Amino acid sequence: MPFPREVRDIALVKSHRRCCVCHEFGGRNVNVHHIIQEADGGVNALENAICLCLRCHAEAGHFNSRHPLGTKYSPRELKAHRDQWWEHCLSHPEEPLGLFLDVRFKAISRTAEIHRYRLIATYTNTMNEAQDSWKLKICFPAFVPLSADDYDRDEIRIEGKAYVQLESSSNDRIFPGESVDIVPLKTHFIEYEVNDSVYDQLREQHKVSWKLYTSNAQVIEGDKPLSELQEF
Length: 232
Ligand SMILES: [Zn+2]
Prior knowledge:
- This protein is α+β, with helices and mostly antiparallel strands.
- It has helices at residues 5-14, 54-61, 75-91, 196-201, and strands at 30-34, 49-53, 99-110, 115-125, 134-141, 146-148, 152-158, 161-170, 179-181, 190-194, 207-214, 220-225.
- Strands 3, 4, 6, 9 and 10 form a five-stranded antiparallel sheet that branches. The chain has a five-stranded antiparallel sheet with strand order 7-8-5-11-12, with no helix packed on it.
- The protein is globular and about 55 Å long.
- The structure holds zinc ion.
- Residues 19, 21-22, 24, 52-53, 55-56 line the site of zinc ion.
- It holds the Pfam family HNH.
């Protein structure tokens, strides 16, 4: 049996129609999924409901236990993702108005001494109108060995600490509902290495921060502790 309509509605509203695992805006492509399958005794109630995008829904549902590659999603993990995301949505009621920037750090190579990461920033236009341009400013602590292609660079100080600020912009139009990778993988990139001297610095709290300006939405600001980069 599917969830009753009112359970689905509450789950969709509490999630801002975003996937509780990857936080992508789902629009009509979001599913309300059972955390514990009905065949395993899961109930058709809100406590057992999670909103997932099509990709995460397939990942969570189609795990083949005879070929256990990767890490299976456990019901407990799914529930933790959901509770964390619902809490976030509750404390950020302004986000469904259309501002969503997902910033991640993808590991691209690892040796014993050096880990290299690439920055991925995906912007989703959830406004009802197209945006004609965007500009991204992103600040890294100055001790991080950065390489970047096609970015303007400035050295700045925030609260006495040195940062390198990289700036990139585009006049490409972003249509309503469209997701755009604003750090495109081919034309330009931001990469950095985590080596021994960087690990030493990481004991202090250092952040990567960003601001995204678009033609007709308010500025999106965010930051993430640099130490979290190692988790990806
Ligand atoms: Zn997802």
